[in-house]
């Protein structure tokens, strides 16, 4: 039975899993989940994961959620090259440190900016209030600064000379706001150089393939017009503005 | 002693690291810091952890932040019993408690916050615990440790999350027994007396908090 990966490439953690599997030539069946249609709340997806988030891995009877856990599982199971998740204690600790930190930093702030710029206006037909937008962008900027000052510094990649899952996770997160037209790399030469390096190591083609959907996120208003607005989105938006 | 661990037991991730190190008899120099007093913003602490958060460790020349990374590092280095972080691939994969589930107790309006917390707890019971004694199975692991310290945080604020959740309560009792009641209670003393402690805190020392709190309410 082949490995199944439940993915929507609008989602950053789906992209890191997708890229990792592709680069390492891990055969898998791409099970598309349409988040904009609320598919994650359907009965069928509920049987796969009651957490109702993507990505999800299904390996025979074994079902696994959480992209970090999935990446670590795939790395171990398929004996991927050491540099992805090094066996050496201190190098691995550095990868773990970044993977932990990013959840509530680049991930949170990048997602928020993405929602504010790309999703909410498509739904409400109006831009997000300026103070909220400015605060969100400022938080993102602070995360990016911390990333450069602490996690990257003057190294070619996060943990040193070689690419690891840390860089993979970092780059897909940073691409999220880029999809909405906010180029986080502009005016940041160190970050841009790192991005180019990562893109080259990953392979430009597969990188672009993974990011095709997010780079076309300006078609979301059309999508909502065609398919209608899913219930969960209406509720989530109400909550956001309470 | 070459291993130093910088902790404030008001903080959930500090408690999981503290319990883990103590439980496994890992020798360390306990560097107590006060987050409420803003020590994390000092120049001194900046040299330990640029992220200016706790916990952090200094092991010889290695400086490491992020509680999960720290526990994984200690587990490996000190060869702690397998059940904490099982070598078996599928068991290990189960370990990760998603940050989405109740890691940050939201500081926004109470109703939304409580609702989110309840949803997280439901999910924890339904997906991560189910009918198992512990998250990964028959034995306690890092997952249980991380979960319990997080779940105890709102308890410190006066909200009994175990009320009407017999399964969760049974799991908590089991975890507390496995860790050892003495150690568990010691780690949680600060947070359980938080409401009292806040009364005796010097408001001037809390000045640094203001912008952060305002921001949480603004956004």
From TrEMBL, chain A:
* CDD domains linked: GST_C_Theta, GST_N_Theta
What is any one GO biological process for this UniProt entry? Answer: glutathione metabolic process
Which UniProt keywords are given for this protein, alphabetically ordered?
Answer: Cytoplasm, Transferase
Which EC numbers does the record give? 2.5.1.18
A GO cellular-component term linked to this record: cytoplasm
Please describe the quaternary structure of this protein.
Answer: Homodimer.
**Assigned protein family:** Belongs to the GST superfamily. Theta family.
Protein name, as recorded: glutathione transferase
Provenance organism: Sinocyclocheilus anshuiensis
Q: Which gene encodes it?
A: LOC107689282
Automatic annotation (TrEMBL), chain B:
**UniProt record, GO biological process:** glutathione metabolic process
- List each copy of the GST N-terminal domain by range: 1-82
An example Gene Ontology CC term for this record: cytoplasm
Where is each GST C-terminal domain found? Answer: 61-201
Name the source's superkingdom. Eukaryota
Can you say where in the cell this protein is located?
Cytoplasm
Report the PROSITE patterns cross-referenced here.
GST_CTER, GST_NTER
User: What is an example of a GO molecular function annotated in this UniProt entry?
Assistant: glutathione transferase activity
Give the E.C. number(s): 2.5.1.18
Q: Name one Pfam family in it.
A: GST_C
Does Cytoplasm show up as a keyword for this record? yes
- What keywords were assigned to this record? Cytoplasm
Q: Which family does it belong to?
A: Belongs to the GST superfamily. Theta family.
Q: What name goes with this protein?
A: glutathione transferase
Instruction: Tell me the organism.
Output: Sinocyclocheilus anshuiensis
